Automatic annotation (TrEMBL):
Entry's Gene Ontology molecular function annotations: ATP binding
UniProt name for this protein: ABC transporter ATP-binding protein
UniProt xrefs under PROSITE patterns: ABC_TRANSPORTER_1, ABC_TRANSPORTER_2
Organism of derivation: Paenibacillus solisilvae
Lineage: Bacteria, Bacillati, Bacillota, Bacilli, Bacillales
Domain of life: Bacteria
């Protein structure tokens, strides 16, 4: 059964101008993401992944092309973005941070409390609700960002290497927590990662981008049933083959861009 298209990106290009020099971050990118799909973007550094997400988050304007995010409920925000770090506000408590999107929209206090506490509980932070960010580890701070994004109940989620700064163990735990909440909410997710393992673990589909200016160089469906484990990713011959394909793609793009 085909699902409705949630994100439609058509011939999108973004160029920056710096001291009369033009840098084309990415060029002619077209991509359709289905409702509830988890899509990872993988590509060499500088190919415009963050810029693409920032455009979808309305933080940046495209130079050419257009995109559309299908809105099912006019009361919902279109998107929430989770960054690699620095996403939470130091002078607000965990609960206040997780509630930002909802309080900004003047949601009723009871609804804010219920929804925020629900997601803080999901990420194991309910007992830290009144703590401040300086009292939290890096992993706990990212959990606050995840709780905030899901509590905000956006149409789509944009995640820019949210676990890149974490150690392997914490990264793995947070990936599992994210997948548990995603399975429950079935949000449409666009997720940037440099980790091939992470892309195989999380994605329904992986989009490969070329070196700058980023273009879509290929895509792969990850057919492994969920829930997935790292042991499966490592032992499944098809996953091993995909790992090597993505690895080779990144190697050749990085080498090609240096010559
Ligand atoms: N505000 C800006 N002004 C000028 N150039 C910019 C700006 N933002 C990004 N760029 C340039 O656009 C290109 C793409 O940057 P972007 O951060 O989107 O790449 P990326 O694929 O996310 O990289 P990485 O994987 O290293 O995070 C880079 O060359 C970057 O220097």
């Amino acid at each position: 059964m085909t699902r409705e298209i949630k994100i439609s990106i058509n011939h999108l290009t973004k160029a920056f101008y710096h001291k009369k020099r033009r840098v084309t971050a990415f060029e002619d990118v077209s991509l359709q993401v289905e409702d509830g799909e988890f899509v990872c973007l993988v590509g060499p550094s500088g190919c415009g992944k963050t810029t693409l997400l920032r455009i979808l988050a309305d933080l940046e304007q495209p130079s050419a092309g257009e995109f559309h995010i299908r809105q099912t409920n006019s009361g919902k925000p279109l998107q929430s973005m989770i960054f690699q770090q620095n996403g939470i506000i130091p002078w607000m408590t965990v609960r206040e941070n997780a509630a930002i999107g909802l309080t900004f929209r003047h949601s009723p206090a009871q609804l804010v409390k219920e929804r925020v506490d629900y997601y803080l509980d999901k990420v194991g932070l309910l007992q830290f609700a009144n703590h401040y960010p300086k009292e939290l580890s890096g992993g706990m701070k990212q959990r606050v960002s995840i709780a905030r994004a899901f509590a905000n109940d956006p149409e789509i989620l944009l995640m820019d290497e949210p676990f890149a700064a974490l150690d392997e163990q914490n990264k793995f735990i947070l990936q599992e927590e994210l997948l548990n909440i995603w399975e429950e909410t079935k949000k449409t997710v666009l997720f940037i990662t440099h980790s091939i393992d992470e892309a195989l673990m999380l994605s329904d589909r992986i989009i490969l981008l070329s070196a700058q200016p980023g273009k879509i160089a290929g895509e792969m469906r990850v057919g492994l049933p969920r829930p997935r484990s790292m042991e499966q990713i490592r032992s499944d011959p098809q996953m091993a083959e995909m790992f090597v394909q993505i690895w080779n793609h990144l190697q050749s793009e990085v080498q090609g861009s240096r010559t």
